[in-house]
Amino acid sequence: MPAIDRTRWLALIVICLGVLMIVLDVTIVNVALPSIKQQLGFGDASLAWVVNAYMLTFGGFLLLGGRLGDLCGRRKLFLGGLTLFTVASLACGLADSQATLVAARAIQGLGGAVVSAVGLSLLMSMFREPGELAKAMGVYGFVASSGGSIGAMLGGFLTSALDWHWVFLVNIPIGIAVFALCRKLVPESHAGGERVRLDVGGAATITASLLLAVYAVINGNEAGWTSPRTLGLLGASAVLSAAFVAIEARVPAPLIPLRLFRERNLAVSNAIGVLWAAAMFAWFFLSALYLQLVLGYSPLQVGLAFLPANLLMGLLSLGVSAKLVDRFGIRKPLAAGLACAALGLLLFTRAPVAGDFWLDVLPGMLLLGFGAGIAFNPVLLAAMGAVAPEEAGIASGVVNTSFMMGGALGLAVLASLAAARTSAAVAEGAGPLDALVGGYHAAFLVGGVFAGLAAALGAGLLRPTEVPADLHGAAGHAPVHEAPLQR
Fold this sequence. Notes:
There is one protein chain. By secondary structure, the chain is mainly alpha-helical. The chain folds into 2 domains: 1-186, Growth Hormone, Chain: A (Up-down Bundle); 263-472 and 481-487, Growth Hormone, Chain: A (Up-down Bundle). It has helices at residues 3-40, 44-60, 62-72, 74-94, 98-126, 130-161, 166-169, 171-185, 200-218, 220-223, 228-250, 264-294, 299-305, 307-328, 331-348, 357-384, 392-427, 432-461, 469-475. The radius of gyration is 22 Å and the shape is globular. The two termini are 30 Å apart.
């Protein structure tokens, strides 16, 4: 392999390590929450802010982070976000008060938003040849889709073997190593063309809108979805979104060019991302609760239960998915993968109180791992292949925002549905575990419907495009007439 090619693939690994650190932190903390609550004296309501502070700033600043990367340099922003995240991780690990931990978690979310938004556009700038891009997307897709369950396993190990501080402190050596390797291996990437000023009005309105929307969603179950507070926050978010659209239609250099949303593949893939993220969050969180609260698994056992799905996901994402895209385009692998994920969620609707891992858990896990491994790469390619290279950063921010908002909203809605179904079953005289499992079944069913709708959208609405001749000529088979790699 030529030295320049080897450097690009090493750079990809460095970027993915940075992104993995961010993805891990979404779930690694959940396992440590009981220990954090006990040591720092959190109440039930205040403890939620250890997670919510991170989600709030992470979701709120994704779009701004992506656009700043386009304007100021993607590697520069990646390094800045990585530094912010690593320093905030140190503050979290050394925190001795509730206020310090929550504030540091909010700063972590800001750094994580920048790294996530810019990482995908850096990848797009390094891999331009379609076949290589599909393989690189497979690696990125594996990291992004499997990091959550790896985080649960790692969090369980660190909390059990050491203490909760280490779920944050483990980021320090990783962050330092990624920073040093990134400076050496990852080239700088700009949008190109004439440098423009940041659209301050657009940035302020969309960031405030996202912050309010995320806050409303993550507190919806606690405050009530029809409460004045929740409806008021959602209404204010909608008003700010409308103001953002009005600003973007008038300014000469908008934060998000509205014409991007006329790209059908970008719009459809983002809708798929919302539905799929909702379904995947249902799988991960609700199945983890089923294993822990119903089957009595320890946190480490829960993480190990996800290992077969992660291994299958990795095998498919890192090789098979790119070959399928090369052979069949994006629509068929995407639809098939999401259909398998839907079937896996539906299998969980039959998991009983006295469930067996091999019969009642593993089949659904494997189908979900298979589906995610096949589908994640085509979803990213469909979204990112629809835009020009100079707009890759903002497109990456849009994609990440869709996944984050879909996951947050889906989890909130499905958790609320599960709780409501459980309460109704208890009122009807069902036993506690039977009622709990009934609530999970209802949520898994709706999650399966979400994944099925995403599969239908991909199969029916993604636009076919010509595949470049060099992609299939090198592969040695006849060309098909669909791929996400050209506009």
